Predict the structure.
Amino acid sequence: MEKNIPILVISFFKKPVAAPRDILLTDMHSHLLSGLDDGVKSHEEAIEIIKIFHELGYRKLITTPHIMSDYYRNDPAIIKQALDELNTIISKTGIDMNVQAAAEYYLDEDFIKKITNDEPVLTIGDKYLLFETNFFTEPYQLNEFVFTAITKGYKPILAHPERYQYMTLEKAEELRNRGVYLQINIPSLLGVYGKPPMKLAMKLIEQGWIDFVGSDCHNQNHIHTLEEAYKNNYFVKALELPLLNNSL
């Protein structure tokens, strides 16, 4: 079978579909810029993690620092500076890795205002916009935000839907029908966040509703968990889905 050949289909929301069959070349959710959030604590830790990503076959990492108005007050300029510093170090190591940066936006009023007012935001690839919500209750403005973001030309990706206590299969299907892409965390399949997220991640894979998988790597413990994932049956099933990672 030919590998990594894009397979295009047409859906109501015109989502492109490209299926990596055996290996992931691109990770699109991690926290590898030291000092910006709860991710790596040093450049040295980031380099060790990047080396393992390389050993696993990855060739592009899109790292996504948190942006949260009342806690992680990062902005495009801060993130770009941190990325430039990391890439300078990577270039000296000789690691063959393309490292880029976007952001993981927390769905709060400040973020909604940015989207509504056409302020600059960091996106992945072709205007994919990674966002997260609180973990307990469905945000009252979620559907309004999705509508506004899509109207503005963005392609919203909900980070780790399996981890939200309010998430159900019915809600996941509703969000997909509204045009939201879903990204599960690979460590969820190994029970890193507990059994409920693991079970929901498995169900989402069974339904074929996953568009992206991400490491959400914050530290060296996470990257070693990622190594174990390749032995997991559900991760293998996820790789058989028309994931979009390698199209980025």
